[in-house]
Amino acid sequence: MLLRRVAKYTFLALLVLILLLPAGIYLGVGPALSCIFPSSGPVTIGLSTRVVLSNGAERCYLLYAPPGFNPDARAPLIFALHGLAGNPQGLRGMTGWEEIADRESFLVVYPHGSSFPLRWNTSPAFHIEETDDVRFIADILSDLSEIAAVDEDRVYVTGFSNGAGMTDLIACTLADRVAAVGLVEGKGEDDPSRCAPTRPVPVIAFFGTGDPLESAEYPIWFYDLMNLSSDPQYREGVPISTWLEGWVSRNGCDPRPRPLPDVGDATVKGYHGCADHADVVIYTIEGGGHTWPGGWNLPFFGKISTSVDASEIMWEFFEDHPRVDESTR
Q1: β-strands 150-160, 180-184: how paired?
Q2: Is domain 36-328 given the CATH code 1.10.10.60 in the classification?
Q3: pTM for this entry
Q4: 3-state SS class at 320
Q5: How far apart are CA 294 and CA 312, in angstroms?
Q6: CA gyration radius for the chain?
Q7: DSSP code at position 114
Q8: For 210-245, what is each residue's pLDDT tens digit?
Q9: 263/266 Cα distance (integer angstroms)
């Protein structure tokens, strides 16, 4: 009798797990359910869900407005882009942007990628046809400008992993609307020679020396599962050093890096003397994994730094780098 009960409850538990697993996967790597019932009208305090028509399709994004937000007062804006198989909800908890927004009074936007699992169309590797994510970001900015006094000289973009690749692409293509960018564990996906911003763009980036995704070799079935291209030309991308040299050159910086004081377990290099004060600063975290420094730990993705707070450091960098045209000084 006891064995029958154990078998019965084990079967029921497995059945429930099987039934809930798809929902759990969807909630973990899919869009927010709130996208089905978005908000409209004026900006509301706290978190809201909005949609914008972009390239003929409705696209969803989360918007956070801090306490005391005044839609008539000019406010900075940060776009925060999730990674492959991530979503805005996860990035919110990982980065802690809203705590800083409450203190510094800026807006935070968490756009949703597309396809499944969610991702950004940064290169052919990500298999998204007819999706223009650069236009999507521009359309969100235009949408917000109609309901809030966005400070156009203090629009910043940051992203994690594939979201960092998207951030790099935005810096290359929307430099006239973005003041500075911050990348964590991700970089431009393509040949940096294809990046031609209309103005120098300040860049800050964080890379871990123990990122398992940088050195891992995945079987073909993994690429199929994640809906990625298995073509070898798209797997590796450019080295971090090549990507870095690209921005140092484009921004007209002194190619000789200046060592800056270590921060926790990170060594820091800065490239200065750049056009329009468009500095390039790189944090290299010893043993750091595919994680957001100072944020939540991601199982199986390596060490997370507890001595480096990427969001706080990034915000200080952003504050020091509003959009500037040196010719107007």
Answers
A1: parallel
A2: no
A3: 0.88
A4: coil
A5: 9
A6: 21
A7: B
A8: 998 876 666 776 777 787 877 766 656 789 999 999
A9: 5
